[in-house]
Specification:
Number of strands: 0
Order of helices and strands: HHHH
Shape: elongated
Oligomer: single chain
Length: 128
């Protein structure tokens, strides 16, 4: 008899608990969180399915392998590069020397005094 009473009590408690579960109103935040969780789970499932799919092979663009050449690096050994750089530096130095010589000779040909420069500019003072 004890077991039957216990089982009867168990069923009553279970029915009461089920009734409470039906009467519970969830807050809107909980509902929103459930919805967001369901969306996140769905997106994750679709992403995993997409990653696990075998890629589709496109046969429309066939490449003739016999026409392909291996890519060779465009490298120059250091000695050749050094010679090129030194030649460029020599040419730049030569131009700089020529430029400095022409400016020196142009200035030494005609040295003007302050009075002559004032005459050229027309600012000489009339001393009357």
């Amino acid at each position: 008899m004890f077991l039957l009473n216990w089982y009867k009590e168990y069923l009553e408690i279970k029915a009461e608990c089920d009734a409470r579960k039906r009467d519970i109103n969830f807050c809107s935040a909980c509902e929103t969180l459930k919805l967001q969780l369901a969306i996140a789970n769905d997106e994750r499932k679709r992403l995993i399915d997409k990653l696990l799919e075998e890629p589709e092979v496109e046969e429309t663009s066939k490449v003739n392998i016999s026409d392909l050449r291996p890519l060779m690096p465009n490298r120059m050994n250091w000695n050749a590069r050094r010679q090129i750089l030194e030649a460029e530096d020599r040419a730049a130095a030569k131009l700089m020397r020529q430029n400095s010589e022409t400016t020196k000779t142009a200035g030494s040909d005609k040295t003007l005094t302050v009075h002559e420069i004032e005459k050229e500019l027309g600012v000489e003072e009339n001393a009357s």
